[in-house]
Design brief:
There is one protein chain. By secondary structure, the protein is α+β, with helices and mostly antiparallel strands. The protein has six helices and five strands. Strands 2-3-1-4-5 form a five-stranded antiparallel beta sheet. α1 crosses α3 and α4 packs across α5.
């Protein structure tokens, strides 16, 4: 018969593996001297951007990630570490939240993480935070595609307008005579 502590650790490892399977991105943060109230504020801000924070012992993180073949993230697992799981295709929003919070609270450190199967550093996370949101990028792409079409439509419209202006001028000169 297994002890309760061992069962609890096994359950946590299984939950971590399930979360990793369903996540778009995973970031590690150090929160050694972050108070409870600011940390809860961070949790709420991350929840608004479809991300959640998971905190457990580093040994359980290492066990779960080792079973998944993610040994390359073990260098992020020192001191007190929290894992931020991104549950949305847009990983930029949580990056913005983390970087903004790290600026306000110098106690929070961004260690790095993974997006899909690629390891990212804290500098990469900061670079992602500087990117515009998905909606802005889509709007820019649409306007870039629509710009030549609207220019063509304006050119055709100018030809018609010039023709109308010419007829109007001819009519005005005939009326004056």
């Amino acid at each position: 018969m297994k002890k309760i502590g061992l069962l609890t650790r096994e359950k946590i490892v299984e939950e971590l593996k399930e979360r990793v399977a369903s996540t778009e991105g995973l970031f590690f943060v150090g929160f050694n001297k972050v108070g409870a109230f600011p940390f809860n504020t961070l949790r709420n801000n991350l929840r608004d951007s479809n991300a959640t924070v998971f905190v457990t012992k580093n040994s359980l993180f290492k066990k779960a990630f080792g079973e998944l073949g993610w040994e390359d993230v073990n260098d992020f697992l020192d001191d007190e570490t929290g894992a931020v799981f991104v549950n949305d295709k847009d990983v930029v929003k949580p990056c913005k939240v983390l970087v903004e919070f790290a600026k306000e609270s110098e106690a929070l450190t961004i260690k790095g993480g993974r997006i899909k199967d690629k390891k990212v550093t804290s500098k990469d996370v900061s670079a992602f935070a500087k990117l515009p949101s998905k909606e802005v990028l889509l709007g820019t792409a649409v306007s870039a595609l629509a710009s030549p079409l609207s220019g063509f439509a304006n050119a055709l419209n100018q030809i018609i307008l010039k023709f109308v202006w010419a007829i109007t001028e001819v009519k005005n000169t005939k009326d004056k005579k």
